[in-house]
Write a structure and sequence with these properties.
heterodimer; A: about 130 residues; mainly alpha; two-stranded antiparallel ribbon; 4 helices; B: alpha/beta; Rossmann fold; 8-stranded mixed beta sheet; 6-stranded parallel beta sheet; disordered C terminus; binds zinc ion
Amino acid sequence: MSGCECKGGFFTLRDCDGAPAGACSECGRTACTRHLSPASGFTQCLDCHARAEQQPREGQNATGEEALDDEWTYGARHRFYTAGYAPLYTGSRHSHYYDGYDTRSFDDEGVPEAETDEGGAGFGDS
Amino acid sequence: MTLLRRPRALYAAFDRFPTRKGASTHIARFAPALFTEYDGGLLYVLGDERLPAHQVEGDVEIVRYSVPVENFLERAVAFGAHLSRLLDEAGDTLEVAHFRDPWSGVPILERERRYATVFEVNALPSVELPYTYPAIAPRTLEKVRASERFCLDAADRVVTPSRTTRDFLVSEGVPAAKVAVVPNGADPVPTRPRPFEAPDAYLIYFGALQPWQGVDTLLRAFARLADLSELRLVVCGSARSRPARAAEKLAEKLGLGERVLWRWELPTTELEPWLANALLSVAPLRATERNVVQGCAPLKVLESLAAGVPVVASDLPPVREIVTDGVEGRLVPPDRPADLARTIRLLLHLPEERERMAEAARARAARDFGWDRSVALLKDVYRALRPSAAASSAPRPTEEEPDVRSAEGPKVAVA
Ligand SMILES: [Zn+2]
Ligand SMILES: [Zn+2]
Ligand SMILES: [Zn+2]
C-alpha cells in the first residue's frame, strides 16, 4: 500500500496518493491527513463522514421527511403561500410543499435521459 | 458538521459533477470564475456511489449530495434540505450564492440572509419535466412553476446563456435590467488525426438524446440518403439512456443497420477526433416549446464551430444566435426530414462551400464564443453585486455590463 487512496481533483478525479496518516474506520481506505475528517476525530475519511451526515436522521424516513417539514418545507410553503406563490393550499403546518400526490408523478415512466445521464436534473444546455 | 471552511461564495447545482454532459462543462467553467473572485468557495452538486461526497481542493470545498433517492422530486427536495443544513454552517460568511435551479434556489433564498444571489437559468424544470415525465400532474407542475417564479423574483440577478431565454424570462415578468446574457463558450478544437475505425465520409451527431434534440428527424433524413452508399452517420451519445435506445430501435426499423455507428460516453479526447473529421455536424433540434420559447444554448453547435465543422441545424431562434444561415453552415426548417436530407445532400456535393463554412465557423467561435469572454462577463455580474458597485451603478442588461472592479466592502444586506 503506497499512498492515500482517496480521490482528488476538480474536473478529473484521481488518487490523492498523499502520505498515509491512517485508515478510514468505515471503508478501510488508507488516507492522508487532508482526507481524514476532523469532525470524526480523524477516524473516517471525508467521503464516509459526509455520506453519514447526509443520511436521514432518527425518526425520519428515507428522504429526511421530518427534517424537510421543519427546516425547509414549512418555511418554503409558508412564504410561497403568504407571498402569493402557492398555487394551492397544501395543508397543515407540517405538510410538505410537495406531497405524496406530487411525488407520484415521478414514480414511473422508466428512466428518462435526464436521470441516467445526470443522476438528477440533467437540464443541461446541449 | 460537514464543512471544513467558511466559504464566501457558493455555487449550487442539482447536477452530477463531473460528467460528460454540457451542464458539467458549464459548471467547470463558471464555478471557478466565481471562486477566483471570492478566494475560493463551496461547490454543492449531486454525487453518486463513486464520486467523493466531500473534497477540499485548494481553497475550494466540494460537497456532493450522494444519498440514492430514487424518486426525482424526492431527490430534488432532499438535495435542497441538505443544502439548507450546509447554509446553517456557512450562512454568516457567505457573500454570494450562485444557483442553477429552483431545487437549490428555494433553500438559498428562503432564509434570512446577508449574501447576494445569482440565478443561472439554462432551462426551467417546469418546461423540461413534461418531456421526461409526460404524466406529471398539472398541480405538481404548477408548484414547480411557482417555485421558479419565487426564485426569479427573489434573486438579485439572473444570468442566462441565450437571448431567446432572456426574452422568455422578460415576457414572464422578470425585469429586463435584472437579466444578463452570458453566452456559452467553446474553445478552439485543434485538428486531430482521424480515429482509425472512422469511415471515410460521415456526418456526426453528438450530445444527449433527449426527445427535443430531434435525433429521430436526423435518422429519417439519413434514411433518404441511402443512395450515398459510402456515407455513414456517427452518433456519439452522452449516455445510452432510454431515448437513446429508442433511437437505436428507430434506426433498425428504418433499415439503417451498419450505416449508423453508435458511440457512447466518449471522453472529450476521443470525441474530438470524431468531431474534427466529420463532413458535417447535425443539430436537428425540434420546434418544441423547450427550444423555441424557453430557448437553449446548444453546446454541440458551439463546439462544432470551434472544431471547424460546418453545421446543419434547425432554424430556431436560439440556433440563429449562434449560426448564420449560409455562413457557418445551413439552417433548415425543424422536424422536416426531407428538407434536412436535401440540404445535407447539397452540401456534400459542394466541398469548397464546406471549406469556406469551416473557416467561417472557426472564426465565429474564436470571435464570439471563447470561454474567456463568457467568464469575463460572468465576473462582471459578480463585481456589480458587490456593495460599492451596487451603490454606484444599477445593474444593466447583458453584455454592456460596466467593468466595475470594486474594493472590498461590507457585506451585502438583502432585504
Ligand atoms: Zn471512508
Ligand atoms: Zn489524501
Ligand atoms: Zn460532521
